[in-house]
Amino acid sequence: MSIQSLSAFGLILAMLSSCDAGSKLNHGEVLKGDAAYSHADAEAALESQTVAVPTSESSVAEAPPATSTPTEAVPEEEEDANQTALEPIPIGGAYLTCRYQDGQMQGSETYKMDCLVTQPVEVSLLLATVQFHKVDPQGNRTPLTILSQDLLGLLWTVEEKAATVPHNRVQITLSALGALSVTLTTTITQPLALTRNPNFWLGGEPSNTPLNGVDEDCVEYSNAAMKISHQNTTGIATGALGRMNDIACNTRYNFLCRNLSAGANAAKWMISNNEGAFTAGANACPQGYAFGIPLSEAEVREVNTLVDRNNQAMNIWVNMSDRARENEFVVLGI
Ligand SMILES: [Ca+2]
Ligand SMILES: [Ca+2]
Prior knowledge:
Layout: H1 8-17, E1 24-25, H2 39-46, E2 51-52, H3 70-73, E3 95-100, E4 104-105, E5 110-118, E6 129-135, E7 141-150, E8 155-161, E9 169-176, E10 180-187, E11 192-195, E12 218-222, H4 224-234, E13 244-247, E14 253-259, E15 269-276, E16 289-291, H5 297-307, E17 315-321, E18 329-331
Parallel strand pairs: 4-11, 14-17
Antiparallel strand pairs: 1-2, 3-5, 5-8, 6-7, 6-9, 7-8, 9-10, 11-18, 12-13, 12-17, 14-15, 14-16, 17-18
Bound molecules: calcium ion (2 copies).
């Protein structure tokens, strides 16, 4: 059978037959904005990219961390003699990569990412139903909106609401004939970089004012009393919602924690009991919560209400920094 003429049904059969039923594959590569690839990228992303090929949509499985290199994972007969360093590595099955679009404004209600399904053969998806989901750490799935799709390039632009941005797993489910389906899961490895929204920052911030040679690369969040103190100290007024300031990452604060389950009975936001430097945020929050940051205007109002319960001037850490690249503030996924 000609692989190039496979329908969506054939694609799914091809996927399922490319591995033992119920088995788990580990593949990975980085989706570049210009669709260029390299072996180095693929190997760098390998540990965090997973592909799960369940036997039905209701039995989505998560692959374990990769333990082999892409080269080792390639069956001999599927290696492509024409492959170059700029092409995806053929690995015997499809896999998903997603990347947030650049230049998105902090405080947007929705955020966009580009997702690519990569596979070593050209197939048609014209008959398939396609669904995208964001997956939280408990496995709860929230559907994403498909804004555009390129079925020949297997490239989709999808959109999510701000509340699911902290979750960094994305799934695509391809279904055909109402029966067979394949779900591919990926973990977003590139953080969401945001265009700074001045309404969310204290007046004159971020300033990156180095102290003793240490840059200000992590973001503190002020309550109302601290905001007034900042205004009095600097003489620069702050807008109604502005609470953020960049400060040295080794400062010690408590952490903002976000509830990981949408719709849970527990509070959506809380402040950690323990304090620490910014890098301690990954382990600072109790079970069911993770180091977070308000992403929409509505969430900023929620967090302002939380921190303003304390009448004493105080700051807490929120999960944003420009440590990797000066003045590029990014949100790390959970
Ligand atoms: Ca900085
Ligand atoms: Ca500052």
